[in-house]
Amino acid sequence: MTAPIRDNAALQELDKRQLHPLQHPKTHADPLVIERGEGVYLYTADGRKILDGMAGLWNVNVGYGREALAQAAYDQMKRMAFTSNFAGMTNVPAVELAARLSGYAYADLKTTFFTSGGSESNDSAFKIARYYWKRQGKPEKFKIIARKLAYHGITLAATFATGIERYHKMFGPAVPGFVHVAPPYPYRFEGEIKDGETVGAAAARLIEEAILREGADTVAAVIAEPVQGVGGVIVPPDDYFPRVRAICDRHGVLLIADEVITGFGRTGELFGLNRYGVQPDILSFAKAITSGYLPLGGNQISDAIYDTIQNAPDTDSFMHGYTYSGHATACAVGLRNLQIIEEENLVERARAMGARLRSGLDSLAEFSMVGEVRSLGLICGVELVADKTAKTADPALAAKVTRLCQDRGLRTRNVGSTLAFAPPLTITEDEVDEIVRILGSVLDTL
Ligand SMILES: Cc1ncc(COP(=O)(O)O)c(C=O)c1O
Fold first, then answer.
1. How far is the CA of 58 from the centre of ligand 1 (A)?
2. Rounded to 5°, angle at Cα 335 from 77 and 95
């Protein structure tokens, strides 16, 4: 075995052999080379310590360096790392995890289909919705209503479900059937608000109007993130999702909840829509199911959908699945991760630490470049603006602040002109205060 390379410059040079996601190679000249992590901190190959205010990519909910998860993976790999989960076979951890998840997020969603990540989960959700309507004798119901500034992933279908233009630009022609409406974004709502209407009601109305415009007999589903993360940490008003659910019911349209970042405690509830007393028909999850220790994702489906699949004739079998659907080691780690979330009361912790982070970030709202602070549980956004009155978005400023925070030992992510904060749910009070202190010092410098 060759000795591991620990020289930062050498690693950075060798890293040129990787094509990195979502980046022009020339902006990747000086990457942070992470060598290890512990709790909420990352340590770079050149000896820097960085508080990971993003929990990786909104997913390392239990924090870094968990022996118990390493042990779960080790034990399972020794017994049997992987085997087929296709027709006629299954494995113990996949069985146990699906059983554990039955009714876990939403009482009515009892059946799980496993994938390896969020994009695959959303792609699967679209195929499940199409399958369902075909079996109902309505094959023309295939369209998906999504929101602008939505991020649903990177497979071809998820790319065009995503409502952010720069993800589409180099990858057209577009996958047909995705229709976007304005998001429930009170700070910058771009739709018309009628007399006596709330922003939540107006934003929900846009979904209903889109269904009517397209024809309800052509619309399979609405897909929505409970909090739009990549689009700018957009937190909807409380009356939005109950209305969206009612609209879907009124027009015979399925509701897909993309809980890839909001699942497993992030919002201070186990799942994002729990807050609104709303249940989706299809759930997409990924990321924090294993806290990122291994790739795993999936869908949960309602009984009506499961019954449709179960009662279909052989000729209409559910011809969908990935080699790694129900990966034994990933599922074993997922089970252990759920146990940690429960034993350490991390959902409640997200709520408490989220409130502390929010009040700290609110104290920075007096800076002229802070347009708005918003949050739900432990997912927070600080939107930066060039002019507070005109609310002029300033993505370049957000990129600059992100860079300066990193230089001072804090990792955030600029999503548009918003800085996102979604640290591990295990974060302590002192560590929350450290986020606020570093961000405050950067804003002060500017
Ligand atoms: C809401 C949402 N959906 C889907 C995805 C895609 O997940 P993945 O990158 O695991 O494919 C992401 C990734 O950040 C996401 O934020």
1. 9
2. 80
